[in-house]
Write a structure and sequence with these properties.
Chain lengths: ~110, ~110
């Protein structure tokens, strides 16, 4: 089994719909992250969490929210999806900078 | 504040040639520096990391990088490219105060036969 599991792997939705991307990890780390990847822009940090009670905004948190349900689970929500949120989303976990990534969730908003 | 700039969004080399991927960083605190690789349809994997020990860092698959503080650089090299090295490479900066990483824009490496 993968250390970091993301669901769904692919999702197509319509503008205005609410979408949740889920992430679970078996590495036992406290810190979890959500990144967004766009061509030519690299990875940009959306939200991160250092433990269950600690949630922090990243560079591009507008339009997104997160929930840390347990040490091993960190979900990302788009309350009302818009087309420019079409991207590849990665969940990661780790400590002292070394991150372990999931395989990504490709989201298309029509 | 920290930032990373990768010079060149696409690099093409011939099989057996030297690979050089450039990364410059900015950091107000001593940096931790990383190179990650992303193969098609996969997540990112750590290639190597610098965390204030030896300035020449060796990673997996024959890659290495040298931390040069005077040049604020952390370029990635491999003496002889292999077809399997074709991927996207990301440089990232962090620090010892937290696990948040800031990534560069990525460099896509193509290897020609």
């Amino acid at each position: 089994d993968a250390d970091v599991t993301q669901t769904p792997r692919n999702r197509i939705t319509k503008t205005g719909k609410r979408i949740m991307l889920e992430c679970s990890q078996t590495k036992g780390h406290d810190r979890m992250y959500w990144y967004r990847q766009d061509p030519g822009l690299g990875l940009r940090l959306i939200y991160y969490s250092f433990d269950v009670k600690d949630i922090n905004k990243g560079e591009i948190s507008d339009g997104y929210s997160v929930s840390r349900q347990a040490q091993a689970k960190f979900s990302l929500s788009l309350e009302s999806a818009i087309p420019n949120q079409t991207a590849l989303y990665f969940c990661a976990t780790g400590r002292t900078g070394e991150l372990f990534f999931g395989e990504g969730s490709r989201l298309t908003v029509l | 504040a920290q930032s990373v700039t990768q010079l060149g969004s696409h690099v093409s080399v011939s099989e057996g040639a030297l690979v050089l991927l450039r990364c410059n960083y900015s950091s107000s605190v001593p940096p931790y520096l990383f190179w990650y690789v992303q193969y098609p349809n996969q997540g990112l994997q750590l290639l190597l990391k610098y965390t204030s020990a030896a300035t020449l860092v060796k990673g997996i698959n024959g890659f290495e990088a040298e931390f040069k503080k005077s040049e604020t650089s952390f370029h990635l090299t491999k003496p002889s490219a292999h077809m399997s090295d074709a991927a996207e490479y990301f440089c990232a900066v962090g620090n010892n105060q937290g696990g948040k990483l800031i990534f560069g824009q990525g460099t896509e490496l193509s290897v020609k036969p």
